[in-house]
Amino acid sequence: MKRRSITSYDVARAAGVSQSAVSRAFSPGASIADATRKKVLRAAQELGYQPNAIARSMSTARKDDHQKSGMVGVIVTRLEDPFFAHTIAHFSRNLQAQGWHMLLFTVDSQAQVDDALNALMQYQIDGVIILSALLSNHMTKVCRSKGIPVMLYNRSAAESGVSSVVIDNREGGRLAADLLREAGHDRIAFVGADTEDETSRERRAGFEERLRADGLSPVQVETGDYTFVSGREAGLRLFARSERPDAVFCASDVMALGVLHAVRFELGLRVPQDLSLIGFDDIPSAAWPGHLLTTIRQPIRRMIREAVDMLVERMENSEAEAKITRFPGSLILRDTVRRIDTGQTKNET
């Protein structure tokens, strides 16, 4: 037979206090005598009682419109992508350090973001972070009406009242083009996502802008979906043609590693002797000895700290204004781009 759960009423009886006193004992900052708190905590420990944080936060949030639940909703697409898994871990640590808890929802596409936010609102969230996706105009207005601040991470929105922290994707594309041109490449291919993806579109735009300044354009463009498999398949397609590129810029490290696998282990090409390859993000595996991928680094620690600080400010102060902060990427030189004798040193900082 399943054992009955211990409730706050059981603790109240054991401690000889009211149930509301038990609730206050487990609520940071609540008004309760120190002796009473100690009596409640001792009884709870003896009974093996653990409060239901979600139920308690929903209850207190309903009682007072200004009462915080302590929860932040996070919506993410492509959680299987190592970059996003790494990013979520940093968000969780930064939120916890400031006393907030993360409630994570994953979605498969942009179309599911509104539904995920509707579900999150049932938990009385105090704010929401959306990674690499956008809210509809309707849900933006709903959040504004409910006083729920929104933080877009790596997406920017024109709507007022929505904060965002983004990487300068266009400038990152320009950095990649500059490096490959300086290395003497003129048959350069691009591997990105479909044209609806803002991140890939912006990286490609900056890349092509710089190539056009030299009278060039990508010799080939292939499409993937930010996975290793799609990068591998794109690499095989690129080098199945008669006019092979001599360099490839990928919109993400994960796809770049797929291309690297295809050309090295299936086509027998040497990198960087036969072609140069550059990615974007600087995920941890980009620096592994078997990869040593040259890439554009996103300063995710600084970006996430800024995103959390901005969101917490708005959750704690309803008068705080939404802001947009843009961070520059940095070129990380490793071993997949052909060296040029310019005295340029390797950057692994």
Automatic annotation (TrEMBL):
Keyword field = DNA-binding, Repressor, Transcription, Transcription regulation
Q: What molecular functions are annotated in GO for this chain?
A: DNA-binding transcription factor activity; transcription cis-regulatory region binding
- SMART domains, per the entry: HTH_LACI (SM00354)
> Is DNA-binding among this UniProt entry's keywords?
yes
Gene3D superfamilies per the record?
3.40.50.2300, lambda repressor-like DNA-binding domains
InterPro entries, A to Z: HTH_LacI, LacI/GalR-like_sensor, Lambda_DNA-bd_dom_sf, Peripla_BP_I
Can you give the residue ranges of the HTH lacI-type domain?
A: 6-60
Q: Which Pfam families match?
A: LacI, Peripla_BP_3
The name of this protein is: Transcriptional regulator, LacI family
Which source organism? Answer: Ruegeria marina
The upper taxonomy is: Bacteria, Pseudomonadati, Pseudomonadota, Alphaproteobacteria, Rhodobacterales
